[in-house]
């Protein structure tokens, strides 16, 4: 209740502050502060705050109801829905665990084992949620640690942190990998008229993932060197693949192929995703019950964030923020500007959920592109990816919290590894954006 009262008081104070912005922009700023405080404190469920903000924007006449409602059916939300359904089918038919265990049985080297588990985690996180990936991989990682003996304290620390951090990093790789990615693409389309395809995102983001995973692995080996170089060989017997598993792999492969070839056939990524979903239902791999097992609250949060972003853009509030920020950033080299934006996004992501952070900052950052002579796609992707680079504390991301809940790692131990990896990640993302994203 205190957080709600604080949100209301701050929004009223902001409303009466003398600022050089239009009346409607002032209202939206007040609503933004109200929503931001509730999102940071999580006084209400994130999706409920998004609904309340949407209703107020419509009731106060900022946006017509049709425009607001349309944001909840944005093509990127449709794409993310498709991603949720595909991930549900993968988990339902046991292919996620099958893939993870098959990777874990490839070596007896503790060092290589850690790397393989991290690679498997990052890859899975590109297609299913970071939280679900971590929940799947942590029990597998702990089972591997047991093979190293009871005294493998460092190995257990490296394993649980490696899984959590790899899930955060891997989710950056595709549009459906993490909610901030989808929010970034949706705002680019609605605010800047820039269309980012599934392949277009992947081409820029996956190289960042490929670089960060081994760097994270090296940091963890340096800080928590496994006590044993070799562990007992892991044998995990699988039954022959069932017909439904083979059928899923065929539909998944077809969907990914169509995503990769969007520019050739002209079918949008969201439509391709829904084609995959329809095939999963027609083949019996998904049923009506599965619709109730996906994260509808995240989709609602998406929609509310897009409504708030559209209101900021339409009323000129985004342009005002951009002018203020440009005054601080203009005149600096592009590489320094990008680094500042990365650090700013990481810091904001540490205060609230990554999804809510992206919903707040992307509409603010996008108008900066023209003033700073940077492309809208680059500036948005930098911030959209940076909010996922939170490795510092258990409260930072659900994967961090799951890793901490194992009891194998303390807050300080996560922080001392996380701060190094966060700095490295910020530098890597800055270098990619400055020199390779053209």
Question: Could you explain the architecture of this structure?
Answer:
The protein has 438 residues and is an all-alpha fold. The protein has one domain. It has helices spanning 2-16, 23-41, 46-59, 65-71, 75-92, 95-104, 110-125, 130-147, 153-170, 179-191, 198-223, 243-260, 262-265, 269-282, 288-291, 296-314, 317-329, 334-351, 354-365, 368-372, 376-386, 398-405, 411-435. The longest helix is centred in the middle third of the chain and has 26 residues, at 198-223.
Pattern of helices and strands: HHHHHHHHHHHHHHHHHHHHHHH
Poorly predicted parts: none
Portion of residues within helices: over 70%
Estimated structural class: mainly alpha
Q: Major β-sheet, in short?
A: none
Number of helices: 23
**Envelope shape:** globular
- Rg over CA atoms: 22 Å
Q: Estimate what percentage of residues fall within beta strands.
A: under 5%
**What distance separates the N and C termini?**
48 Å
Oligomer: single chain
Mean pLDDT across residues: 85
* Total discrete domains: 1
- The beta-strand count equals 0
Give the secondary structure arrangement, pairings included.
Blueprint: H1 2-16, H2 23-41, H3 46-59, H4 65-71, H5 75-92, H6 95-104, H7 110-125, H8 130-147, H9 153-170, H10 179-191, H11 198-223, H12 243-260, H13 262-265, H14 269-282, H15 288-291, H16 296-314, H17 317-329, H18 334-351, H19 354-365, H20 368-372, H21 376-386, H22 398-405, H23 411-435
